[in-house]
Amino acid sequence: MTTLFDTKPTLEGMTFIIVQHLDPKGESHLVDLLSRHTALTVRPAQDGLAIEPGHIYVCVPNRDLVVSSGRLHLVDPEVERSKRRPIDRFFDSLASAYGDRAVAVILSGTAMDGSRGIAAVKAAGGTVIAQTPETAEFDGMPRSAISTGLVDLVLPVDQIAQALARLSTQSPVDALVEPDGPIPEVEAATLQSILRVLHDHFDYDFAGYKRPTLLRRTQRRMSLRSIDTFDAYAKLVRDDADEAAALFRDLMINVSSFFRDHEAWEDLERQVIDPMIARLNNGDELRVWSVGCATGEEAYTLGMLLLERIEAAGKSIKLQIFATDVSDSLESARAGVYPETITSQLSPQRVERFFIKHESTYEVRKNLREMIVFARLNVITDPPFSRMDLICCRNMLIYIEPETQRKILWMFNFALRNEGALFLGSAETIGTQTDLFEPISAPWRIFRSRRKTHAGRFDFPRFSVADRRIGPLSAARSPRPAQDEFLTIAQRALLDRYAPPSVVINVDHQVLVYHGDTSRYLMQPGGEPTRDLLSLVAAGVRPPLRHAINEAIAERRTIVTTGGYIKNRDLRRPVRLTVSPLGAPSDESPLLLVSFEETPEPVAAVDGSQSGTDSSGAYTVDQLEEELRLTRQDLHEVSEQYDRLVEEYSISNEEMLSINEELQSANEELETSEEELQSLNEELNTLNNELRGKIEVVEQTNNDLNNLLVSTEVATLFLDMHCRVRWFTPAIKQVLRLIPSDVGRPIADLASTVTGAQLDSESRRVLLDLVPVEAEVNSDEGKTFLR
Questions:
Q1: Cβ(225)–Cβ(236) under 8 Å?
Q2: What pLDDT digit, counting tens, does each position of 543-568 carry?
Q3: Quick one: DSSP state of residue 323?
Q4: Residue 754, pLDDT above cutoff 70
Q5: Are 573 and 565 spatial neighbours (Cβ–Cβ below 8 Å)?
Q6: Which pairs count as long-range contacts for 242-249, CB under 8 Å and 24+ apart, including other chains?
Q7: Kind and range of the H or E element at 596?
Q8: pLDDT > 60? residue 615
Q9: Which one-letter DSSP state was computed for residue 124?
Q10: Which of the listed ranges 362-376, 425-439, 458-472, 576-590 does the model predict with the highest average pLDDT?
Q11: What are 270-287's pLDDT values in tens digits?
């Protein structure tokens, strides 16, 4: 803390609130310590105290600190001491009270307190800063916060003040725009160009989002990167893919938690889920859609709650949950692995039932994971699901423009069954769509679908988002000249007429492009769809094709072979195969063009019950001999590959055995180290108890001596080796005019009320010869003292 406030940037416009882990029975001296390191006003937190800029407020022992309505509030801790998370609790209130003006700073500390609270700050549009773990005396809290992926800046403490100063001096968006009004033309144009870059990078269109929100979050990224102008930041986003990804993550707001607003989930359980399950019969299906699922907590919350209520009802109901989002957070949701901090959001019974404990994480159990389908879907542009009993879309609509909100609500109404339920966030509403929904629980934004929307009321996109490369943000394309169109048509006609059926593959035999009618040579096998060419190609073509591909890759040249054939009714038609590398000879992974051409001489299929002409028989023998040669060659290559793989697996197996031995050895060392650490910990505890006892004895002795010196009413003055005041008894005021602030001053500088004092010179003489000096002295009041 002293390092943070020792730095000199201007911080007067900010308010600092410090929350620590304190001994409930102890005393905090942080107010006195910080007062010596900053010009800001440092005060202990008091209940109901108004929050002012230029102040530092410090929490007090045995009370939790929250903020609301511009005031501090001291509240009793909710749980026992070992489970308290005062920093999480404070961050939750900070995010609720100050939104995007909140800044959460995580400094040195143990455990994971703060990691859940920063999610609330991030969701509100605030900023999160963490101390560099390597510079922290206790790195548990910084590392835990960083592992959430929500931290904007990771800095040493001496650089955090500069970052805070940059944030405090950024131009507030509120000064530029009305809450829901248009933004200035210059900022609007630059913001449009930035969003176009994001659209090109991530194929996501922010056209339906509120512009002030987008502008505010873009400005925050500018402040974090120390950039002053929109044009400069637009250039950075174009040139730096990492910054583009960071801005995209900030705009997507991928923050979620288990059972957020616990009372809302209790209301949903009581008024929606229980009656819904009561209406269903055994074997019926219950379909639920979690929109904007982020990292999956909300979807798993739905799963846990529904499983518990179905089990409590004693019914056998098929449960299907769809969870959708458009960001990369879907991968985290699919993995279902969460930090230990989830224990503060879930009851021990739910953690035990639905999660598997690993070293420092919890993983969702298989039975819960398998009932949830995670899919990429943009609710603004993609068609919705249908026949849903419940849709959960919390804290997404607040970032969307009103017109787009109406469209989304129409789609939700279309997706729900009759009497289906819609669960929104606490700050969201259905607006004017009262003809589509009626409230079930107005305080917690739970609604019932009251009539079905027809699909014709809004336009579904014809293609998926992945196919639509041009969105509203893309520049309009001018039509091509007629000459170019004619040339393209002519080239396409020539290729279709004269070029043989072909495919383009990579070195892994995966088909990338089809050209012409390849149906005579390629056929999708049963089972899962595949793009592997050797699985698609006809059996009579496979051996020579495999050999030709391997040879073309190895020799980097075009290979032509005529050893293949296809069957057409009772005829075997010979096929010429051409495999040509595409790209420069130096390419490590060239593409290959594979072309198929039938030769004109069909041959009768070989059949034991029929015999052809002599010429046909001779041709068939030649064909079979060629096939046999290719098959042997192919078998030889496969055998060589098999031998090589066996050798590689053998080497890998030896390496794995060696690594296993090393791990076993390391495990034994760790077990030994753990025992030594436990023993050392016991010794330290014992030593600590002894030191506590000695401190108590010293304190008691010191108190006894103080009481003795004060009660004797003897004027006593203690000096150090340089004749400076160290301590004095109250009775000294009869002789010297001393006040508490004189501690540390030379005795020669102090005024005396006695004559012939000569304290400084005589004190120094006593220090030199170590011989006591006694003398009678008189005070101004006529009293005589023996000094």
A1: yes
A2: 888 888 888 888 888 999 887 888 87
A3: E
A4: no
A5: yes
A6: 244/197, 244/198, 244/201, 245/201, 246/221, 247/194, 247/198, 247/217, 247/218, 247/221, 248/198, 248/201, 248/202, 248/204, 248/327, 249/327
A7: strand 591-598
A8: no
A9: T
A10: 362-376
A11: 999 999 999 999 989 999
Task: Round to whole Å and give the CA distance between 390 and 290.
Answer: 9
Joined together, the tokens standing for residue 596 give 């198929």
User: Is the pLDDT confidence value at 589 over 80?
Assistant: no
Per the listing, tokens 């455990």 go with: 111
Per-residue pLDDT band for 56 (boundaries 50, 70, 90) equals very high
Contact present, 247 and 152 (Cβ < 8 Å): no
Count, residues in the chain: 787
Who wins on pLDDT, 44 or 395?
44
- 730 in helix, strand or coil? helix
Structure tokens of 642? 């098999």
Contact at 8 Å (CB) between 258 and 341? no
Which residues in 277-310 are b (16+ Cβ under 10 Å) and which e?
beebeeeeebbbbbbbbbbbbbbbbbbbbbbbbb
Tokens of 385: 């699901």
Question: Which of the residue ranges 27-36, 149-158, 403-412 would you say has the lowest mean pLDDT?
Answer: 27-36
pTM attached to this predicted model: 0.54
Cα 31 to the chain's mean position, in Å?
35
Over range 140-168, report the average pLDDT: 87
Question: Per-residue b/e over 175-214, b at no fewer than 16 CB within 10 Å?
Answer: eebeeeeebeeebeebbbbbbbbbbeebebbbebbbbbbb
User: Which two structure tokens, joined as six digits, stand for 74?
Assistant: 């001291």
Distances in whole angstroms, Cα of residue 630 to Cα of each of 383, 578, 624, 653: 51, 16, 10, 34
Query: What is the average per-residue pLDDT within 622-644?
Result: 76
Alpha carbon 480 to chain centroid, angstroms = 44
User: For the purposes of burial, counting CB atoms within 10 Å of the CB of 353, is it exposed (0-12), middle (13-18) or buried (19 or more)?
Assistant: middle
Pair of tokens at residue 546: 């495999």
Provide the phi-psi class of 538: left if phi over 0, else alpha when psi is between -120 and 50, else beta.
beta
Indicate if the pLDDT at residue 182 is higher than 70.
no
What is the DSSP-derived secondary structure letter of residue 255?
Answer: -
**What is the biggest distance separating any 2 CA atoms in the chain, rounded to whole angstroms?**
153
| Residues 144/145/146/152 CA torsion (nearest 10 deg) | 180
Cα(520)–Cα(504) distance, integer angstroms? 17
What pLDDT sits at residue 305? 95
Q: Which two tokens stand for residue 517?
A: 């009618």
